Amino acid sequence: MPKFYVDSGIHTAECTTFMETMMDDSVVDLVVTSPPYDDLRDYEGFNFDCKDVAKGLYRVVKKGGVVVWVVGDRINGGRSLTSFNHAFAFRDAGFMVYDAMIFKKRNTPFMRKRAYTNCYEFMFVFTKGTPATFNPLRSPSVRSGPAQVPYLKGADGVNRKTERSLSEHKVRTNIWSYAVGKNGTTKDMYAFKHPAMFPENLARDHILSWSSRGDLVFDPLCGAGTTCKMAKATGRRWLGVDVSKEYTAIAKRRVRQTVADSISSLPSRSDPFDELVMAEENSRMEANIMCQWCGVEISHDRWQLTGGRAVTCSPECSLFNSRRRRNELKRVERAARLETVL
Ligand SMILES: C[S@@+](CC[C@H](N)C(=O)[O-])C[C@H]1O[C@@H](n2cnc3c(N)ncnc32)[C@H](O)[C@@H]1O
Q1: For residues 163 and 49, what is the distance between their CA atoms, to the nearest angstrom?
Q2: Most buried of 75, 149, 317, 339, CB within 10 angstroms?
Q3: pTM score, two decimals?
Q4: CATH code, 9-135+172-279
């Protein structure tokens, strides 16, 4: 009898036990997850053993499958280098360390004495062989059109150039940057009960890069369900597991409220992904998530209704309207004074 849950779902369980008892071999296309590290937070006192999780994942991931592992280091005087230990644990379990990408945080309050402010975590990309899927995300090129491009120097060391046409988009680098916190990670304010979510856009970009529509995306440490939410939004199946009932309740709510397949901009080789659109969408999200007048969160419905252009929580926002009335009154008084002077 198959152990595997075929339906998408979120479960409260310890992840190694869940994998062992509930999941068949080679069923997962992509894992996007972030582990606890260095006991920075207490997740209901549960023990987390990276080696066991890596072994379990190696069994359940398909050949050509990918694990994106987002992890940092405790900085207390020096760096713990736990992130590196995790990478070695995955290599020992059989994975190839395909890339060590960087998640750069656009806003970070953690200054250090006598050191530069740390603004990144690793996004290790572990693969079971060569990745079966890679849809490269692209960004706009600085230069495009006809240009003189140097090509390989010969033994004579002479720099030769050739005429080429540079394209308007180029494949992104492996450093990705996202806003974090209340204005960047998510618009689901209730999800911030979880202390350590990663940004929705980070999960989205990895899901688009390393999987196809209909694939199974697994998060064994799903927390508030960011990966599962974005898997649903991009038309994938999702499976989330977390030890905490409180967090899986948040994850279930977030997934329930997400419209399946609502993010349709799939990158492909023939249809370069328009990162400008993404960048614009990100900056609008960051700028407008709160009412500029009273500071209350702008609801998802209003956000959608206004095509992401809302600056007030409602057309009737009392603070906005009282200021508008005050300004209108001032304008009328000024006009009246001017008339008297004339
Ligand atoms: C860094 S958080 C993940 C946050 C998630 N990426 C998000 O965006 O919401 C790590 C999660 O692992 C869970 N956890 C810790 N040990 C676990 C274990 N052995 N099995 C399952 N979940 C575990 C914690 O409850 C916590 O929610």
Answers
A1: 55
A2: 317
A3: 0.76
A4: 3.40.50.150
